[in-house]
C-alpha cells in the first residue's frame, strides 16, 4: 500500500461545495488531493494527467456518467483504485459500479472518519462497501459465475499454474474476505497478500478483483 502521507487522491463530484468539502477533509486527513473535477469528461482528462492512486467518484455526473468514467480510467490507469461515493444505495447502481471496475461503494451519509478509512482501504485493494451492500455484491459475483460462459475452444491455452499459496489466497478472496482478514488467517503480512493477488491477476490475465472473484467462483474455490 502507498504510504498515506503520499497517497494521491482525486475527487469527482458535480456539486462544488460537496466536492470542496470532501477534498478538504481528505487533505486534512493527510492525503494528497492532486485533482478535482465536476463532470465526467473533465474527470477522465484530469485523472490521466494527475494519475491518482484513488479516485473518489460520484456516479451522477454531467457529460459522462460515473460508471463510464470508471470503465475508461480503470482500463487506462493500471494502478488506479476507484471508490464510489454516491447518494444512491440502489442495488442496480451498486452492481453497475462494481462491474465497471470500482473497488468500493460508500454512501454520502458516511462520516468523515468512514470516508478516510475507506480511501485507505481502497488504496490497499480491499473491497469497501457501506454495510449491507457487501453481501449483495458477493451474491452478484455468484450469479455471474453461474451463467454459462463461452464454449471452450480446442486451441484454448492451458490454464496457468498457480502456487499453493496463490490458490489459497484466491480461495479466501472468493469467500469475500478482505486482504487484512486473509493476512490474519494465513499469518502473513498484508503486503504479501497484495503481492500474491497481483501475481495471480498477472498469471490469469485479469484486471481487477471483480474478475478475480468470478474466476475463483467459476472454479468452485469458494466452496472449498
Concise synopsis of the structure shown:
By secondary structure, the chain is an alpha/beta fold. It contains ten helices and six strands; from the N terminus they run βαβαβαβαβαβααααα.
Overall 3D geometry?
Answer: globular
SS class: alpha/beta
Biggest pleated-sheet summary: 6 strands, parallel
Binned strand content: 5-15%
- Number of separate strands: 6
- Secondary-structure element series: EHEHEHEHEHEHHHHH
Helix % is: 40-55%
Distance between the termini: 29 Å
Physical arrangement of strands within the biggest beta sheet: 2-1-3-4-5-6
List segments where confidence is low: pLDDT < 50 over at least 5 consecutive residues: 1-5, 152-156
- Whole-number mean pLDDT: 84
Count of helical stretches: 10
Radius of gyration: 17 Å
Structure description:
The protein has 224 residues and is an alpha/beta fold. It is built from 10 helices and 6 strands; from the N terminus they run E-H-E-H-E-H-E-H-E-H-E-H-H-H-H-H. A 6-stranded parallel β-sheet has the order 2-1-3-4-5-6, with helices on both faces. Strand 3, helix 3 (66-76) and strand 4 form a beta-alpha-beta unit. The chain starts with 7 loop residues before the first strand and ends in a 6-residue tail after the last helix. Mean pLDDT is 84; it is low at 1-5 and 152-156.
Amino acid at each position: 500500500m502507498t504510504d498515506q502521507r503520499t497517497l494521491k487522491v482525486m475527487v469527482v463530484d458535480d456539486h462544488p461545495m460537496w466536492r470542496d468539502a470532501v477534498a478538504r477533509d481528505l487533505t486534512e486527513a493527510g492525503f494528497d488531493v492532486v485533482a478535482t473535477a465536476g463532470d465526467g469528461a473533465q474527470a477522465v482528462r484530469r485523472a490521466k494527467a494527475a494519475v491518482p492512486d484513488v479516485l473518489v467518484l460520484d456516479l451522477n455526473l454531467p457529460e459522462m456518467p460515473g460508471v463510464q468514467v470508471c470503465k475508461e480510467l480503470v482500463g487506462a490507469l493500471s494502478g488506479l483504485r476507484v471508490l464510489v461515493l454516491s447518494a444512491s444505495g440502489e442495488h442496480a447502481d451498486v452492481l453497475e459500479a462494481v462491474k465497471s471496475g470500482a473497488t468500493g461503494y460508500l454512501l454520502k451519509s458516511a462520516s468523515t472518519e468512514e470516508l478516510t478509512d475507506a480511501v485507505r482501504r481502497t488504496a490497499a485493494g480491499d473491497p469497501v462497501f457501506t454495510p449491507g451492500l457487501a453481501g449483495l455484491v458477493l451474491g452478484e459475483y455468484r450469479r455471474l459465475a453461474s451463467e454459462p460462459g463461452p464454449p471452450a475452444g480446442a486451441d484454448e491455452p492451458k490454464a496457468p499454474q498457480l502456487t499453493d499459496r496463490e490458490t489459497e489466497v484466491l480461495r479466501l478472496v472468493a469467500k469475500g474476505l478482505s486482504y487484512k482478514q486473509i493476512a490474519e488467517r494465513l499469518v502473513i503480512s498484508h503486503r504479501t497478500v497484495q503481492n500474491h493477488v497481483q501475481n495471480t491477476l498477472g498469471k490469469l490475465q485479469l484486471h481487477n478483483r471483480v474478475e478475480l472473484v468470478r474466476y475463483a467462483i467459476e472454479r468452485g474455490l469458494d466452496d472449498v
